[in-house]
Structure formats: C-alpha cells, structure tokens
Amino acid sequence: MIFQEHPWTLQEILWQQFLHWPKELPIIEAEDVKARKGFIYANLYAAKLWHARRNGLLCDWVIDDYNGKPAVELSFQILLPDGFRYRGSVDAVLRNRITGAIGVLEHKTTKYKVIDPAQYKNSAQAVGYSIVLDHLYPDVSSYEVLYLVYSSTEMEIVPLDFTKSLAQRAEWLQDILFDIDNIRAYDESGVYPRRGESCFNFFRQCQYFQTCTMSVERLAKEYHPDMADTKVYDVTVTMEELIETQLKRNT
Ligand code: SF4
Hints:
The chain is of the alpha+beta class. It folds into 2 domains: 1-59, no CATH class; 60-191 and 234-251, no CATH class. It is 31% helix and 24% strand. The chain is built from 6 helices and 11 strands. The chain has helices at 10-19, 39-54, 124-136, 166-189, 216-219, 239-250; strands at 61-63, 65-66, 69-70, 72-79, 85-96, 102-110, 143-151, 156-163, 200-201, 204-205, 235-238. The longest helix has 24 residues, at 166-189. It starts with 9 loop residues before the first helix and ends with a helix. The mean pLDDT is 84. The structure holds iron/sulfur cluster. Residues 194-196, 198-199, 206, 208-209, 212 line the site of iron/sulfur cluster (SF4).
C-alpha cells in the first residue's frame, strides 16, 4: 500500500498492521528490546517507511499488477530436471512511472549499523528473481533489483539499487544445474558435506548440532504423500522456458 500513488494514512497502515499481526506473536508482552523486534518496532518501521515515502523514497515507482492483482508476495516455482524445483517469493514487483522499467523490491532487515552494497549486490536470490521477471515481462528491456534495507540497530532505511546483466542471469541458470549435479553426487555416494563454519550462526547453534553426524536413515523421515507441496504458485515456469527467454533476449 505504501508504494501506491495515493498512500493510506499512517493511522490506517498501523491499524491494518494490528489487524494482520500474526496470532502466534504477542502484541502486549515484553518486546525484544535488544534485537528491536516485536509489534512496537514493526510499527516504528512502518512509520519510518511511510515518512520516507512521503519524502520521495522510490517516488517514481508504483506496485505493478499481475493477473489483475497487485504484484506483492508473488510466489513462483521453477521446474528443474529430475523433479527438482527452485521456489521463492518476490516481495513486490514495481513499475517505474517515467521509464516503464520493471523492478523487483526486496525488504531486508539487519542488525548491522553500517549497510554496505557488498552485502547484497551479488546475492544469487536477486538474480533468480530477475530471471523470473524476464519471463513475466519479455518486452521490458530494463530490470532493476531494489533493496530496502532496514538497520534495526540504527532504525534507518537504506535503499540500494542493482542492475542484473544478461551474463549474470546465464551464470545463475548454470549454477543451479551444478547444484543439482552436486546433490546427485552426494546422494549417490551417501556422503553429505558438513559445513562446520555454519554450525554457529545468528548467535545460536544450528538445530542439527550434535545430531547431524548420525546416519541419514535415522535423520530423514520416510516420505509420505501428505508431505507433498500442495501450495498453488502464482508463477510456474520450467528451466527450458527460462533458457529460451534468455536466448531470445540475447539475440
Ligand atoms: S551442525 Fe548444522 S551446520 Fe554444522 S555441520 Fe551439522 S548440519 Fe551443518
């Protein structure tokens, strides 16, 4: 709503935030003051964003429509060889009112006081999103990936803007195929790598610490049809279709 031409008032946004606050999260109970998480901090962020928008943040951009609906939380799946899938969700697809360019908007929150473009510029996730956009908007020649990064420590919003090249997109597709080859190789050998450097991340132990050395048979649940992903995706596209789109764009 914040990015539409006639935004809601701040009171209306805060009221909607209250109405849609997840039931499992407390509203009144103690806030996580150190991590600056919770209902109050979410309201503060909404207010910051609302004021920044009024002061010109992304003023040329509006939320685009997809299938007659605002393109927010657009879920997608890419069907890959051998039943593999790459799934994701785009926070919002924006259209520049002046140039007609299309952009992917990503919201990020960090505890870092200093936000550096290097933290996000080469994110594989963002390249993947731009490839899906290529497929959805084949006639648009310019795509940008716009990040709104919120430092919860400084309570500041920093906008970052990256353009993804055709070469980066081709490399991303190739990379996904390498990932599948790697998974197959691990599966065939029955040996999976342990990434020791990731055992302690985000100030806590990995949930598999102490158990990941057990045999895979003990760790993995037997597959049951109930576990199948029944989610309906806004966009489903095959790897072949994406490669075809990229080849067309290249020529
Ligand atoms: S504890 Fe977690 S991160 Fe560390 S090796 Fe085991 S599974 Fe990987």
